[in-house]
Amino acid sequence: MKSHKIPDVKTLIVIPCLNEARTIDDLLLKFSSTLNNPADRIIVADGGSTDGTRDIVANFSMQDARVILLANPKRIQSAGINLAVEMFGQGYDYLIRIDAHGDYPDDYCNRLLEDAVHTGADSVVVAMDTVGHGTFQKATAIAQNSKLGNGGSKHREGAKGHWIDHGHHALMRISAFTEVGGYDESFSHNEDAELDYRLRKAGFRIWMTDKTRMTYYPRSNVRPLFNQYMAYGRGRAKNLLKHRSMPKLRQMIPLAVMPVALLALLGVFHWLALVPLCLWIAACVGYGLWMAIVEKNPYGLLAAFSAMIMHLAWSTGFWLELVSSVGAPAPLAGKAMS
């Protein structure tokens, strides 16, 4: 693979986190060993961890002054990254966002910087490999890696490097980030898609790299997975309300799930009300059986169950956000950072 020389740029690596004691030390070891410029910094924006995360980072920073622990009183990731850029971003060229729930190849940052320099992109996004350990987490990972769970999303499946509208955030030019106002802190989820909308509207370009990718570990049981996807659905609806940006077809299909589930309640009066719900369940189970038989995947049927949780939660969150917005003031599309 051809490598492009990395110029003398200054990079700010930001890790927003909350209770990540199991993973934070390994992440700091990995990324502190790959910093290119003596001025590069790793900012851990902690949202008030109570599991020892803060002590781990503080101890690490005593050994390596390039690692900085930053309190994030607003707790959410978008606010943590905004605060890190506001306090430390002056004079830096690029921001690299690291998810504490993920794992990364050793050359991750270098590959991102190479592609940013080679393409001239203002933002470089990556594909995700979702991996699980326990039974439910493995099934959920399979669901999220499949079209049943991701609808063909490019940042889930990966593709040859190309320009794109949205992807999983990895690297961003700090001047572009600050010009559009950073993340909108009213978004606890889907803040990346919302920011990408403003980046594109302002004329900035987003590149989907094929030079590297990250590994993501999904939620390991039902309730956190449902809550996560319900928040994603709310975020997608907030994006629609703020920018009048319609969901893509792959997102619109799952939107029908909650209305179909509500319609099924009328099944006590007539069996036809159950048909749409039964068709959805049959489609999911059928896809799970196909994975189990054709792909010889023992988690196929359980992956279908995980996908149904994701569909229902996403649809529920979307409609709840729309209903709750009725009569409320329209959200502004202005800048989020001060």
Describe this structure in words.
With 338 residues, the chain is of the alpha/beta class. The protein has 2 domains: 11-219, Spore Coat Polysaccharide Biosynthesis Protein SpsA, Chain A, CATH 3.90.550.10; 237-325, no CATH class. It contains 14 helices and 9 strands. Strands 1, 2, 3, 4, 5, 6, 7, 8 and 9 form a 9-stranded mixed β-sheet that branches. Strand 2 (41-46), helix 2 (53-63) and strand 3 (67-71) form a beta-alpha-beta unit. The protein starts with 10 loop residues before the first strand and ends in a 13-residue tail after the last helix. The model has no long low-confidence stretch (mean pLDDT 90).
Structural topology:
Layout: E1 11-17, H1 24-32, E2 41-46, H2 53-63, E3 67-71, H3 77-88, E4 94-97, E5 102-103, H4 108-119, E6 123-130, H5 135-145, H6 147-150, H7 154-157, E7 162-163, E8 168-173, H8 174-179, H9 191-201, E9 206-216, H10 222-243, H11 249-255, H12 257-264, H13 275-293, H14 300-325
Parallel strand pairs: 1-2, 1-4, 2-3, 6-9
Antiparallel strand pairs: 4-8, 5-9, 6-8, 7-9
Helix pairs in contact: 5-14, 9-10, 10-14, 12-13, 13-14
